[in-house]
Amino acid sequence: MLRNWITVIGFSLVTAISTNVYAKNLPDFTELAEKHGAEVVNISVTQNVRAGRNAMPFPGMEGDEQMQEFFKRFGIPGMPGMPGQNGAPQPDYKSQSLGSGFIISSDGYILTNAHVINEADEVIVKLSDKREFKAKIIGADKRTDVALVKIEASGLPKVTIGDSSKLKVGEWVAAIGSPFGLENTMTAGIVSAKGRALPQENFVPFIQTDVAINPG
User: Fold this and answer.
1) What is the pLDDT at residue 87?
2) Can you tell me the distance from the alpha carbon of 167 to that of 205, in angstroms, rounded to the nearest whole number?
3) In sequence order, what DSSP letters do the residues of 6-25 get, joined into one string?
């Protein structure tokens, strides 16, 4: 007697499992791993960063004046974006980051986080079978942190989005993602609460869980 569905938390693939659980009979997640593992993808993002005397070595810090002052005072010579020998600016460089996503249609549409593909110059999607595709960004919404990308492929395994209103506090859940590029990593826990909201942000009701999910 097993029913499962899929919901989204941090764009790891999160599957919920409901069954008669006893202390000596904990749920077996192997079926979920085998069924849904191929639907999760690894996303590699490259951003071309224009370096210079005022450029910061880490993306996202350009608008932080205190951080700029910190790196001006204590920056290590030779770091990207920091002055090198004789005060010469460093050359442009590429910034790379990793994220996760999951396939929502067999013809290559993939959901991920908006922050993963933000300001990306190139997005590469790696499937569980090791195939890699260059992806096109279809759209992104920063407020909900949702983005849609597309790869040119067909016959892909895809998730079936479930009804989160049927999710119950206390149910077991499993997350499948690619933290730090470690593909198809699975963790498990329970639904801790529903309908959560961030401070001063009530646009999206969140699902709280104690499943180990990487920040972001």
Assistant:
1) 56
2) 13
3) EEEETTEEEEEEE---BTTB
Q: Which two tokens stand for residue 61?
A: 């810090």
Q: Considering the entire predicted model, what is its pTM? A: 0.70
Q: Which two tokens stand for residue 71?
A: 């790196």
Whole-number pLDDT of residue 179: 84
Measured distance CA(141)–CA(50) in Å, rounded: 25
pLDDT tens by residue, 135-175: 999 999 988 889 999 999 999 999 998 898 899 999 999 99
pLDDT band of residue 82 (cuts 50, 70, 90) is low
Strand pairing category for 40-49 and 122-126: antiparallel
Domain with CATH 2.40.10.10 in the chain: 38-50+93-163
- What's the CATH number for 38-50+93-163? 2.40.10.10
> For the chain, first and last CA: distance in Å?
34
CA–CA distance, 120 with 103 (Å, rounded to integer) = 20
Contacts of 191 (CB under 8 A, 6+ apart): 16, 167, 168, 169, 170, 171, 173, 207, 208, 209
Cβ atoms of residues 162 and 15 within 8 Å: no
Position of tokens 């490259």? Answer: 46
